Every structure is written in structure tokens, then in C-alpha cells.
Amino acid sequence: MASKKSLKEEKNENKSASYTAQDITVLEGLDPVRKRPGMYIGTTDIAGLHHLVWEVVDNAIDEAMAGHAQNITVELLADNRVAVTDDGRGIPVEKHKQTKKSTLETVLTVLHAGGKFGGAGYKVSGGLHGVGVSVVNALSEYLCAEVRRDGFLYTQEYQRGKPKGAVKKVGKAKGSGTKIIFQPDPEIFETVEFNSKTIIERLRRQAFLTKGVHLNFIDHRTTPAIYYGFYFDGGLLSFIRHLNESSKQLQSEIFYVEKSAEDVQVEAAFIYNDEIETQELSFANNIHNPDGGMHLTGFRSALTRTLNSWAIENNYLKEKDSNLTGDDIREGLVAIVSVKLKDPQFEGQTKGRLGSPEARTATESIVSEALRNFLERNSRDAGKILEKCLLAAKARKAAKAARDTVLRKGALDGLALPGKLTDCITKHPEEAELFIVEGDSAGGSAKMGRNKFTQAILPLRGKPLNVEKARIDRMLANKEIKSLVVAFGTAIAENFDIEKLRYHKIIILSDADVDGRHITTLLLTLFYRYFPKLIENGHIYVAQPPLYSITQGKETHYIFNEDEKEGMMKSIAKAKGLDPETATEEELKKMKINVQRYKGLGEMNADQLAETTMDSANRVLKQINVADAEEADKLFNVLMGEEVAPRSKFIQSHALSARNLDV
């Protein structure tokens, strides 16, 4: 047994743990970025990887906004390299008076060095922080900068932020511009493989916001290469039409205004459709602000105040009536607000929210005046908009009554859980799992095969209501959905409280067939529309039950897809001395190889279901997330909405790429 240390020994140890100047670490140059990349790009997962592309593209967009670039090209090259080229002025290469190095090297190696902190380089820019390309350099295994300027081509190469040599004058060159080629560092990122769809959508959006500029994308990783080109003269008008193409618009004319006030250039557009969802996008200096900010606040305030005033003046509302709320007015709204200002104040390097007060006052005054003129010029559109808002207000009151009824009933019943819910024992939500199971038969197997301590089972009867086509009052009248709401414990809509969530894993467990996929889609629509925080916080999962079991003697293998089955069958055939390319299932069956296709969970025994789909040691779960909410919203509208034509078009366009069809 170790003896206790004396007080004197402890004091001597404390003295040896020094805290002097030599204990202070100074990270120089780009070392802080490599040490704490999350501080600069938010994360080191796939989102952080693509943030590198955005930083370089944003610099090129700044050149376009300043009127110096007309063409921007993003290329995905071999070895996970990316090339971003613009025909702007080209980064200066002459010696910088402060750093005594080439200006190009200064921009690539010094944080907060750029043309956006003063001088006449840029009136407005998205890369305000000036750390963009230097951060990309720091987090890249390799980077090469090529500059065409003053009739010559200059290059410089880097390895993990360190120059491999000085800037070189390679030779003569026509035109001007900058090309940045970089290869993300696998030591930093969880993955270094870029997603072409993510980049394409970003470039399309930038083309809408920067009218008159060509944005091109080339993916050289495939043969032949994939090419996309974007160019829009209409700006936000084109953007609105794109966002609303799958919905029926109420207005004959899109609201649009572009004007400056208080040194802030404001561009805004909106249209109403017959949906109940709202789409609002906000941008500052062409940077998407997913969390909104002052410009969006100003737009909402102008919209709410002006429409309420117009409604009273034109007898849609009486003075004594309660005003339309912001939620009433935004139902079915598709809106874009874009501002350009000299010194925008963003929250964080990822620029998720705009905090500049002048953006609010400028947007509010400009939109208020333009909207009043719009309503006066387009009285028929004004009437349709207000009828839509009044209907939303009526539905809001009905929905509130329905919600109150659900909550009040729950309170009177002592917060009774649904009768068909088989709850788990644990009272700790972080340990608890709720399986939403298709049908009573599968529900019975799941109940017998579950871990009673952590796993709860809620069977659903029939297909859930398609909430994309239903208001909340009708939705809450649906017995199956009401059971889900009460089981979650979070309530819904403005009463939603994620802190009251009773299960931190909510798992959809449906059959591996078309009907099962349909049920999963309906449930995901419900979660996306009315419980988005559950998706955002990573609480929603889809279980992956096996498609087949292959039994050979006493061994049973569970197979989850057709490719896996084919590989297993070839392996068994080879082991049995058969030609794996020509052996048939009939031949294998004669050798006592049994192949069973599971059409439904109810066909599985409780122990099979538990082993393959519920046991955390063996199961396969897909966590649901929404990487691009705007695109997801559009797809939900197409697939689950009222309009048939967009859905038919989608099916026809994607018919050849369909998978997992039962035939």
C-alpha cells in the first residue's frame, strides 16, 4: 500500500510545475489555424471541407461584385484537388511594405491580410475577415497560386501553409486573374472527398445573386468530365422562380425592389404560393446567412406592418380586430433578401448571422415603401395575398384550439401515454430508444425481442397522414400522429420543447419494401415539417432490416442489399466447387443452402428481429440529417405536395436511376 505524501513533498512538486515565460506557447503564422481549425471553418467534417471551396470562391465573387471579373470556374481534379479560377485583377505580387514579402505570399500566409480592411480595393466584399485564402492554405496539404497580372504569369507553391519557394515569374500571359489550386490535408479533415452536388448548388445560388456573371463547374474525376454552367440576367427574380417552380403561385407579378439607403444596397423579392411552408433566404455581400440577421428582421417587420396597415385601410381587417401575426403573413411566402454593405458585422467566421443594425433600418424602409407601391399597383395580387394571410390566421386559431385540446386532454389523463405504447424502464432520455414500428405483427415481434430497459415500441396502424397536404389542426385530429406527439413528450409547434424529449433515439422500423419506404417517407415529412429540431439535433434514425437470410448448415448470414447477396452467393458457390459466375440458387438449394427473402418484419421471429435490427451491437441505423434545408424543402414539396405535374416530371427524370423497387 502506497504511503501518503507529506505536505513538504506536495509543496516541492507544486514548485516543479512551473509557470514562467518559457511555458507560454506562441503559435506563429498559420499555426493557430492548424491547431484549432474549427475556430476558422466551423468543423473538420464534410461541411468544413467544402468551406475551403467557399472561401476561395467568395474571393472570386468579390472581384465580380467589384466589376472586375466576369467568369469564375471551379474544377474538381484528381487526388482530391480543387482549382478555382477567375478573370479578375489578379492578386498583387509586388513586395508588401509591411511584411517585406511578396503581396501574394502575404495574402496566403498572414491572417487578416487582404484588400478588405481599408483602401479602395473593395467597396463591398463577402470575405470580410481576410482570413479566407490563408486558412485554405494552412489546411491544405498542397496549394499552388497562379496570378496573371501586368502581362505576366506568376506562381508560388505551398505545403501545409509553408512556401516551397519564392514567387516565380513564369512567362508572359494574356489577360488577368487568379487561379488557386489546393489539396485539403487528410491530417486535418475527416474526409477529403468533395461532393459535386453540394458545389453545384452553391454555384447556382451565387449565379442568381451575381447577375451577369458566368459561373462554371467541371468535375474531371469522371470520364467524360461533368460540366455545368450558370448565368442569370434576372438576379433574384430568376432565383424566386427557381425556388417556386414546384408550387402554384398566387401572385401574377413577383414583388421586387433594388435600392440603396444609408450606404446599404438592398435587393429583395418575394412571391406567395398555395403551400403552408415558408422559404426565406437572406444574404449579405452574397454570403448566405442561414440564421438570418438584421436584414431579414427588417424585411419581416416591413412585410408585417405594411400588410396589416393595408388590410385595415381596405377593410380586410377591422380596427378592433387583432392584427395578423408574422406567422400568418409568412405562410406560403417565398422570399429572398440580399444586402451589400461596406463593413458587415457577422457572427463568427462562418458568417451565419448578420449583426449590422444599418442593414435592418435600410431594408425596412426600402421594402416598406416599395411594398406599398406594389400593393397599390397590383390590387388583385394584394387581395390574394391578404386572403391567404387571413386564412392562415383562421387556421392558426383552429390549430391552437386543437393543440390546447391535445395538451389539456393529456393533462386531465395525468399525461397518459398512448395505450399501444410499450414503454421502456429507464427514465433517462439519453439511454432511451423509441421504435416506431409498421403494423401490429411487427410490433409484436419487436416487443418480444426488445431490450426492456432501454427500448420502447410504438406500432402504427396503416399509413400516417401526409402532413405536407394537411394543416396542423387536421394533423392533430389524426390518431396515429397524436400518439407520436404524446409519446415524444415535446408538444408541437410553438409549444415544442426539446428538453422534454423522452427518447434521444427515435428509430423508424418499417418493412424493406415499397410500402415500408412510403411509410418512412411520410414519417420523415412529419418530422421535417413539425419536429425539425429532432432532425437537427440528430435524434431521428431509420433502421435497416435485412433483405435476406442465407443459411448454410448451422450458420445464418443476414444480407442487407442485393450486391451483398450476390457476393455471398458467389463465395458459397466457389467453396462448393461450382463456377461462381454461372451457379444458380436452385443448384445451391440442392446443397442445403437456404435463401429467404424477408418481405416484412412480421415474417421474422422475435430473436431474428432483435439480432439483426434492434441489438445495438449488430444493427445498422441511418441517422437522418438535412445538409441543405432549401433543397430538402423543395424536394418535399415536389414529392409530397398537392401539385401532380412536378412529381410526374421528377419520376420521369429519375426513372432510370431508381433502386429498391419490388417487382
UniProtKB/TrEMBL annotation:
Signal peptide: none annotated. GO terms for molecular function: ATP binding; DNA binding; DNA negative supercoiling activity; metal ion binding. Coiled coil: none annotated. It is an enzyme of class 5 (isomerase). PANTHER family: DNA GYRASE SUBUNIT B, MITOCHONDRIAL, DNA GYRASE/TOPOISOMERASE SUBUNIT B. Its cofactor is Mg(2+). PROSITE patterns: TOPOISOMERASE_II, TOPRIM. GO terms for cellular component: chromosome. Belongs to the type II topoisomerase GyrB family. This is DNA topoisomerase (ATP-hydrolyzing). CDD domains: HATPase_GyrB-like, TopoII_Trans_DNA_gyrase. The keyword Isomerase applies. It catalyses: ATP-dependent breakage, passage and rejoining of double-stranded DNA. Residues 432-546 form the Toprim domain. Its EC number is 5.6.2.2. The lineage of its organism: Bacteria, Candidatus Harrisoniibacteriota. The keyword Transport does not apply. Keywords: ATP-binding, DNA-binding, Isomerase, Magnesium, Metal-binding, Nucleotide-binding, Topoisomerase. GO terms for biological process: DNA topological change. InterPro entries: DNA_gyrase_B_C, GyrB, HATPase_C_sf, HATPase_dom, Ribosomal_Su5_D2-typ_SF, Ribsml_uS5_D2-typ_fold_subgr, Topo_IIA, Topo_IIA-like_dom_sf. It holds the Pfam family DNA_gyraseB_C.
